[in-house]
Amino acid sequence: EDNLLKGEVIMTDSTPVNNNEKQVNIRNFSNPYNVLYVLSRKKSLEVFKSMSVFQKFTGIFVHDHETAIYHFGMFHGECNVHLMRYLRKNTQETGNSWSCSMSAFLCGLNQARKDRIKEQKSCFSEIQLQRYEQRFDEIMTLAKEQNKHTRGTIAYKEEKRLINRILKYRENHLLFLYDFRVPFDNNMSERDLRKCKNRQKMAGGFRSEDGISMFCSIMSVVETLKRRKMNILEGIANLFADKVSLA
């Protein structure tokens, strides 16, 4: 946790697990060198206020549009892979072209950034950013126009909510363009949470909150060792022998 707090960016996500037939959540906080799992009874602002990482971190959170997290940290990046799932759903349900165009545009931006990083550049030029912003605005103008003609009350309302969300959180979805420290998505955190899903499939859930907390502590150590490419058994043995820390 201390090392996460010293970093600049934290990816976070959560997954539901069964606790003696009741549902709670395991929340993950990740960066390239550290992995932390914690018990989170609910996905609510009040619960988040009690979590140390949310209280203390002053950097950038990257997450799946969890609006309660906007109360913490300094800046926020929205997961664009998560957004693209909604865009794909909208294309299938409305037949409108704007959402498909936005998905392709976001993929193109991600590739352009990867190419820029390969060139050992730390940012885009002002001209490039202006061009990307202009194209983004053109697609959203098309989105509002096509939404006026969307058939079906439910499809119309859901599409309008999606358009409003993208416009409201425009800067958060595009933060990866302006700050290369910020990833395009929070898939790192999602991948880390798959271990929790696998545990639930094998055991059917947990029997107590103490069991969940112990699982989170063990997995935090194991996954951090793996993230740092350290030998797991040796690393755990050294921790018990007080020969090394994960600092």
Task: Please give a structural write-up.
- The protein is of the alpha/beta class.
- It has helices spanning 2-6, 45-49, 52-56, 80-94, 98-118, 126-147, 153-168, 170-173, 175-178, 187-203, 209-227, 232-240; strands at residues 9-19, 22-31, 34-40, 60-63, 75-78.
- The chain has a five-stranded mixed sheet with strand order 3-2-1-4-5.
- α5 runs antiparallel to α6 (126-147).
- 29% of the residues are buried.
Write down the overall mean pLDDT. Answer: 93
One letter per element, helices H and strands E, the order comes to HEEEHHEEHHHHHHHHH
Strand content: 5-15%
Class by SSE composition: alpha/beta
Q: Identify the overall geometry.
A: globular
State the helix count: 12
Short overview:
By secondary structure, the chain is an alpha/beta fold.
Tags for this entry?
247 residues; alpha/beta; 5-stranded mixed sheet; 57% helix
Any chance you could write out the topology, listing elements then pairs?
Elements (H helix, E strand, L loop, with lengths): L1 H5 L2 E11 L2 E10 L2 E7 L4 H5 L2 H5 L3 E4 L11 E4 L1 H15 L3 H21 L7 H22 L5 H16 L1 H4 L1 H4 L8 H17 L5 H19 L4 H9 L7
Parallel strand pairs: 1-4, 4-5
Antiparallel strand pairs: 1-2, 2-3
Helix pairs in contact: 4-5, 4-7, 5-6, 6-7
